[in-house]
Design goal:
The protein is globular and about 50 Å long. The chain has one domain: Rossmann fold (3-Layer(aba) Sandwich), CATH 3.40.50.720. Strands 2-1-3-4-5-8 form a 6-stranded parallel β-sheet, sandwiched between helices. It has a two-stranded parallel sheet with strand order 6-7. The longest helix is centred in the middle third of the chain and has 22 residues, at 99-120. It contains 5 helices and 8 strands, in the order βαβαβαβαβββαβ. α1 (23-34) packs across α5, α2 (57-67) runs parallel beside α3 and α3 packs parallel to α4. It has 237 residues and is α/β, with parallel strands linked by helices.
């Protein structure tokens, strides 16, 4: 489809945010609450009464069943993910690789979100709709010029492939669906504080979210997934 189409099937829309208790997820929630066109925002986090747990498939399935009652959703945002796990940050060298840490990194950044995609994508509205997952620029294989961060890079690259593959499948039934890997920039939060430096531009969560929402609204429907940063610029896979 070559021509641009509206982000939502109608002026009013419903949104769902997974990872709503985080800095970025919370900023998405605030943006949707402030938009008079958004008639419902579904909030999902580890604190949800359903017992939602990214590491537990059954809890993901159960939450999707509950959330279905308030759908369908024109926009689903998966804002889950972690850079440091159990107090351990990204590995900088091969000598630091640990199988248990690698497994946890993939469970949180790839496998859990893949199960979220499996169970929540059927909740998307027919026609113009968006499924967006927070990704990272370091998940780009062709953009890797510095090395390091083995597990996190690999987990994000794997998630990007899952998004691309899912887009191909889901668009067979709904060609107006956009599937997007979103790079939010370096966002000010408790979790990112240890990994920022004076040379890196640090964004307030709302600044990042405003940029990402603007980028989503500018997208044309196309075959396959997008990989975009918060400024709407495409990132090479």
């Amino acid at each position: 489809m070559n021509e641009a189409s509206p982000l939502f099937a109608s002026d009013q829309y419903k949104a769902l945010v997974i990872g709503a208790s985080g800095a970025i997820g919370g900023a998405f929630v605030q943006a949707f609450h402030a938009d008079p066109l958004c008639i419902h925002v579904e909030l999902i986090s580890r604190g949800s009464r359903s017992g939602f747990d990214l590491m537990n498939e059954e809890s993901i399935r159960a939450q999707a069943t509950l959330s279905n009652a308030h759908g369908p959703y024109h926009l689903i945002i998966d804002a889950t993910g972690a850079l440091a796990i159990n107090g351990v940050g990204p590995e900088k060298a091969l000598s630091s690789l640990n199988p248990d840490h690698l497994m946890q990194t993939f469970l949180i950044n790839t496998i859990g979100p893949a199960m979220v995609l499996r169970y929540f994508s059927p909740l998307l509205a027919k026609g113009s709709s968006v499924y967006a997952k927070l990704s990272a620029r370091v998940g780009s294989i062709s953009d890797n010029k510095k090395g390091g961060w083995y597990g996190y890079r690999s987990a994000k690259a794997a998630m990007n492939m899952i998004l691309q593959t899912a887009a191909i499948e889901l668009q067979r039934k709904n060609p107006d669906l956009r599937v997007v890997a979103l790079q939010p920039g370096t966002v000010k939060s408790r979790l990112s504080q240890a990994f920022t430096s004076s040379s890196i531009k640090v964004l307030e969560p709302q600044e990042s979210v405003t940029g990402m929402l603007d980028a989503l609204k500018a997208l044309q429907a196309k075959p396959g997934a997008y990989f975009l940063d918060y400024q709407g610029c495409e990132i090479p896979w």
